[in-house]
Amino acid sequence: MDGLGVIFALLFSLLYPLAISVMVWRWRLSGEPFKPVLVAFLAAAVMFYVAYLRKVYVLFLSGMLLYTVDLVATGFIEEAAKLSVLLIPTVKGRLTPGNGVFYGLIAGFGFGAGEAVLVLAESAIAIPDLMISAFSLYFIKSLLLEATGASAWFIDLAILNLLLSLASIVSSGPLILSIPLLGIYERAVVVLLHGTLTGIVGWGLARGEVTKFYLAAVGLHVLVDFFAVLYVLGVVGALTIELTITIITLIVLLCVITKGGR
Predict the structure, then answer these.
(1) Do 3 and 54 meet the contact criterion of CB atoms below 8 Å apart?
(2) Could you tell me the pTM of the whole model?
């Protein structure tokens, strides 16, 4: 089942962002050649993994300090990574005040695709991995009990922890091939969010005001990530967070498309 889940994760993560990118191209960039559009999408997808290297700080930080650093660093680094895609000569040479937003949207969708592949693929294998780990530990415990007659309470504790993690995933809502439906919805919204934020950056780059628009995108990115931190800390529930992020994304996306595409 995890194999099918991974295949589904890959297909959704790539085809959904690619489909809406083609829609944007046909809708607002129909006079543009497909090559710079494809370069923006693919380069941004790869750039996600370059930006992800920032996570090295998890080796040195923990607790609230980790959340604080991650909250701030993610916005600045990811928006800078997406900006670098728009600076690729093949892409930048096509930017105009009227299409900068839409090239930004496509680059953001590509970045979101790269992230979705990682997040959903990990989610697809989470349940099978937890089950295999729990059964493996139970088998080891049985061998120790038979060989020594001693109770391996620490293994029981590890198994309990795995089962609690499994229960948390299963109780999060309906699953599609081991992937929580809410997680799939979240990725769909986050792809739009990445497109929206990079649309802001592309808008500013095409207008020659990149710093101001970049900082605006970073500010919105940090705001959305702040809600995610509240969820991790248990302050608010998942549905509340998803609804809030959806509303913010759709409102800003509409504003960016209507005002930036003039």
Answers:
(1) no
(2) 0.85
